[in-house]
Predict the 3D structure of the following.
Amino acid sequence: MAFVIDGKKISNDIKDELKEKVAALKEEGIEITLAVIQVGNDPASSIYVGNKKKACEYIGINSLSYELPETTTQEELVALVKQLNENDEVNGILVQLPLPKHMNEELIIRTISPRKDVDGFHPQNVGALSIGQKGFVSCTPAGIIELLKRSGITIEGKECVIIGRSNIVGKPMSMLMLRENATVTICHSKTKNLKEVAKRADILIVAIGKPRFVTADYVKEGAVVIDVGIHRDENNKSFGDVDYADVYDHVSAITPVPGGVGPMTIAMLMKNCVDAAMQNQ
Ligand code: GUN
């Protein structure tokens, strides 16, 4: 029987722990504020941003909301980010991605002060992670480490295979697993014999963005499978990069979609906001 890793419960536990911490900080007169910027009104982004603001409210973090029109110029956005960088009341700055095509995302990310970069996307934070220094870590991979640890899954010494090499998930995930003393392999579109490589994994992390791509023949008997994908079927029901029903009988533990990795991203964002406020004291 596979152990189903309950991301919803674990994320709620983390949010409750943070809520207590935030209340204690308030007693000391410390308020935490996250600035959330959305440019345009992409429906998926609006849902993500709404959920982030809801989580802030639950935990007791103030959120400042900037809903800018699609026609906002890059200069205007840069000016807003710089103004928030300078504002001592603001602890964290989040610019929801993707940005409209006329903007240079990399430049915008670089404009955010690394000390307020609660997404962990700034090159300084990415670099810090790769050399084992302190800094903000991208929320989804950080959430996966929490899922594993809080489920009692040992990482040290394990063979970890990551399918996907994005800057937001695959690459930081590999650094975090290395930091936890796993042996790490990253696979991508040019990897040869992907099935055979994936089958080496004690812990298989799938962030490839292809619906139900990973079937039982990618999975070693007894492996732990973490599914980062989110897709929707014609009834708007979500499912992942892993064919859950197909692999279920072969794994020792697995994250469901929904209710696995997804809820952890926001929980870790909230943790980064609290950390940002603590470091700024
Ligand atoms: N778009 C999709 N995921 C994310 C995220 O984690 N942070 C930001 N800023 N934008 C996103």
